Amino acid sequence: ADGMQFQFMGGKAWVNLPHTAANRLRSLHRIPIGSYTGLVPGMSVRVIGDVDELRHLCRRCAPGAKLKVEWIPEMKSLAGATCRVMEMRDEICGAQLEDPFEKVIRYLPFDALLLA
Questions:
Q1: pTM of the entire structure?
Q2: CA-to-CA separations, 30 to 59, 77, 84, 104, in angstroms, rounded
Q3: Tell me: the pLDDT tens digits for 33-46?
Q4: Could you report the per-residue pLDDT of 2-16, keeping only the tens digit for each?
Q5: In what order do the strands lie in the sheet with 105-109?
Q6: Helix, strand, coil distribution of the chain in percent, nearest 5
Q7: How many CB atoms lie within 10 A of CB 8?
Q8: Is the Cα dihedral 89, 116, 42, 32 positive or negative?
């Protein structure tokens, strides 16, 4: 998805637009997910790499959320990991992901995720 088209379409760009060279991000250039509506099941995301910031984001409600994600120490293995969004969770304004290392399901708020 090309830059402006992606911004206007949010997460639907991953499904509706063809792959181009513009959607292959450099490994050190990460773009935050701007809103909960920017997520869509099946998209690839990268978890922020700072464990302290990840812990902070999980311990409070994400913008627009009714509930917070509960932090557990095992979640630190997700920091910096690339995961695929499995499901959306409206109550936490976040996503269900599979931890690629521990092979268990975890939930994270949208603002702890980056485009991968």
A1: 0.78
A2: 23, 19, 16, 25
A3: 989 999 999 999 99
A4: 555 555 666 666 667
A5: 105-109, 94-98, 82-89, 44-47, 113-115
A6: 35, 20, 45
A7: 10
A8: positive
